[in-house]
Amino acid sequence: MNQFFISFLAFVAGVLLTIQGGLNTQLGMLLKHPLLATVTAFFFSLCFALLLVLAGVKSYPSGEQIRAIPIYLWFAGGLFSVLGVSLYYYTIPKLGVSTMISLGLCGQLFFSVLAGHFGWFGLPIEPITLKRAMGILAMGSGILLINLK
Length: 149
Prior knowledge:
Structural class: mainly alpha
Low-confidence stretches: none
Number of strands: 0
Strand content: under 5%
């Protein structure tokens, strides 16, 4: 796939995450608790993911490959996902969707630049450059403009 198409897919992913945040925030408000919305969303996410795995995965990892995976990788991503998603559902009704998403994206951008710079989580090292620093400043400026009353 070419870089433009992959970038377009990343953009669509952001749109989809915003839609799910809005829908699941409504669910959390109707259920009277953001964690109930998180459990519901993750349950149905599991159902849809299982359907996609059954339809699309041609081969599965061997027992040896599974045993080689560090224990923490089985649960750590899920823990951070529950915390992050629940915080989205909790803060969207209090801040508004544009404010929450803009602040959430800022947190993602800031931490991803930091994690990339140091190669955390086994990711490729992407040094912080002047251009990247300017991008963070531009994002911060955009967030200020979006949130100024």
